[in-house]
Write a structure and sequence with these properties.
single chain; mainly alpha; transmembrane; YdcZ; membrane; signal; transmembrane helix
Length: about 150
């Protein structure tokens, strides 16, 4: 197997583990900090410091000219992340971590199908197929089973 593909699979698996850890960790932070918004703010501050340290160690710097030419949507990723962290802190303790993550994955896959189909946000176009839609419905069925 191509080493970059293997590294990508490992990174995806570990990032999934991080998603599962993030909600309960930040819920603990929210209880101490007084709100999901405070927890998200602290979480992003810690993440920003970690990324700054990584950038310094790796010697990477933003390309100012490249940043100026970006479409507006390229600047919205932080907003999605902020909503994700605050929503996870709020929802996971109330509906359970497994159900929250099942809903999260269902939402991710449904949105991914649409983005792929239209080639939106710079993605290569991958038309929706019956098998892909059925796969999402199987996962959404799993969401219902987890909830029961």
């Amino acid at each position: 197997m191509n080493p970059l593909v293997l590294l990508s699979i490992l990174a995806a698996l570990i990032s999934g583990m991080c998603v599962a850890l993030q909600a309960p960790t930040n819920a603990t932070l929210a209880r101490a900090a007084g709100s999901p918004i405070n927890a998200a703010l602290i979480s992003f501050a810690v993440g920003t410091l970690a990324l700054l340290a990584a950038a310094l160690v790796l010697g990477v710097r933003p390309n100012g000219a490249g940043l100026r030419g970006l479409p507006f949507y390229a600047w919205t990723g932080g907003l999605y992340g902020a909503f994700f962290v605050a929503a996870a802190v709020f929802a996971a303790p109330r509906i359970g971590l497994a159900f929250y993550i099942a809903l999260l994955i269902g939402g991710q896959l449904a949105t991914a199908l649409l983005l792929d189909h239209f080639g939106a946000l710079g993605l290569e176009r991958q038309p929706v197929s019956l098998t892909r839609v059925l796969g999402v419905f199987v996962i959404l069925g799993g969401v219902l089973l987890i909830r029961r």
